[in-house]
Amino acid sequence: MNDASGQVLRTLRERTGLTAREVARRAKVSESYLSRVEAGRATPSDAWLGFVASVLSDALLEQSGGPDTPQHPPDTKGTHPR
């Protein structure tokens, strides 16, 4: 993983609003290693990236209301029971 990839990881983490500590806790990885990866000073395994990506993906889905939640509520005018 190069500096640019680590920066992308950091940007995604920051977009979720999660701290490095929280991502590390949820992914069950070392916070210091996460910081080194984000800084481009460590090259993670595919499995490690999978753990972290899963946490970030879940956090982004939570922010957007999840995959099954419509972004706009359906129009319910005229559908009240009589």
TrEMBL record:
It comes from the Bacteria. InterPro entries: Cro/C1-type_HTH, Lambda_DNA-bd_dom_sf. Residues 61-82 are annotated as: Disordered. Residues 9-45 form the HTH cro/C1-type domain. Gene3D superfamilies: lambda repressor-like DNA-binding domains. Pfam families: HTH_31. This is Helix-turn-helix domain-containing protein. It comes from Microbacterium insulae.
